[in-house]
Amino acid sequence: MAADTREPSTTSSADDTSRPYRGKIYETFTPPTSSSPSTSPPSPILPPENANAIPGGSTNTAGGRVKEATLWDGIKSIKVEDVKNLHKIPCVRDALLTGMGTGFMVGGGRMILGGMVRAAEIIDRKRLEKERQAEKIRAERRRRREEEEKKKEDEEKTKKSGWSLWGSN
Fold first, then answer.
1. What is the model's pLDDT at position 14?
2. Which of 2, 67, 110, 123 is the most exposed, having the fewest neighbouring CB atoms within 10 Å of its CB?
3. What is the pLDDT of residue 10?
4. Closest Cα to residue 36, out of 12, 20, 15?
């Protein structure tokens, strides 16, 4: 039968010393060591900050800097054919249909709820208008009643203050 691979074998230690990475099976950024093993671990080689950087310090092969794109550059890059064929792109079609459906749902909800709010505002406005008219009518009645009472008082005063021939009231 075959030996269990989980059990350490005694023969693998001789093979590990012959490898430059001393038994590591993953890649590291270390320089290969010489044939004689050293006591200090090898110094790691760090990857460059930008893998596309040219030794002169620029990422552009011509030596200049890349011009940053502006909004106007983006607008100028749009062609009429792009807009005409936009609906033919599958992901755009799905996005547009989803957006339109959502827009109709949100717009319908706002219309219904907004209509209800507007109706409530109209009802409140009419109720306040009726209350103002009722208050005007009450004020007019009160003014007329006060005038009638004042006229009655004046008539009673004139009757009492008058001189009577026989001395009776």
1. 47
2. 2
3. 54
4. 20
What separation in angstroms does the CA of 149 have from each of 111, 144, 160, 162? 56, 9, 16, 20
pLDDT on residue 87? 81
**Distances 38 to 20, 22, 28, 33, 41 between C-alpha atoms, Å:** 11, 11, 18, 8, 7
Task: Fill in the amino acid letter for 153.
Answer: E
Q: How far apart are CA 85 and CA 83, in angstroms?
A: 6
Res 50: pLDDT: 60
CA torsion angle 101 103 105 109 (round to 10): -170
Quick one: pLDDT at residue 108?
92
Single-letter amino acid code for the residue at 130: K
Q: Could you tell me the two tokens for 71?
A: 């909004």
pLDDT reported for residue 82: 86
Six token digits for residue 1: 């039968």
DSSP conformation class of 60: S
3-state secondary structure 84-106: HCHHHCHHHHHHHHHHHHHHHHH
Q: Burial level of 46, CB count in 10 A (0-12/13-18/19+)?
A: exposed
Only one residue has tokens 């080689």, namely 45
- The two three-digit tokens of residue 109, written as one number: 């909800």
Strand, coil or helix: 95 = helix
